[in-house]
Write a structure and sequence with these properties.
There is one protein chain. By secondary structure, this protein is mainly alpha-helical. The chain has six helices and two strands, in the order E-E-H-H-H-H-H-H. Helix content is about 50%, strand content about 5%. The protein has a two-stranded antiparallel sheet. The chain is globular and about 40 Å long. The N and C termini lie far apart (about 55 Å).
Length: about 130
């Protein structure tokens, strides 16, 4: 049996205790990107199975495209990668951004609780 040499790890352990291997990655010829395939690539890069550059070259992605996937997962979870959910999450992000940039609205503790998933992102970003 011949084992092909690859740079980087063959498997990585995920926080939930599961493992992600190179065999779990979508094929390089993937043309139809369903949410589960996008999520697998995001996990692979996030946990160090492959590098961002390797993912972009292997799957013919732009860094902007990958970062949009990564941002969607970070803000809303893997369900945000579904094509049907994109409009809903984009509208919510736009509404939230408008509220933050208006300046005349105070962010109360109740507001922080409701939008706690965004609060850490806002404190880092602004």
């Amino acid at each position: 049996m011949h084992i092909r040499k690859v740079r980087g790890p063959r498997t990585v352990q995920l926080p939930d205790g599961g493992f992600l291997s190179r065999g779990d990655l979508p094929p390089p010829t993937t043309k139809r990107w369903v949410a589960s395939r996008k999520a697998t690539v995001v996990k692979a890069v996030r946990f160090g199975l492959i590098s961002l550059e390797e993912a972009c070259s292997l799957y013919d992605l732009t860094q902007d495209e990958y970062s949009s996937w990564q941002t969607a997962v970070a803000r809303h979870g893997e369900s945000a990668l579904r094509a049907t959910a994109l409009k809903k999450y984009r509208q919510f992000d736009q509404y939230f951004t408008e509220i933050v940039f208006m300046g005349n609205i105070k962010l109360t503790s109740l507001f922080q609780d409701v939008f706690s998933c965004y609060w850490g992102f806002l404190c880092e970003y602004f």
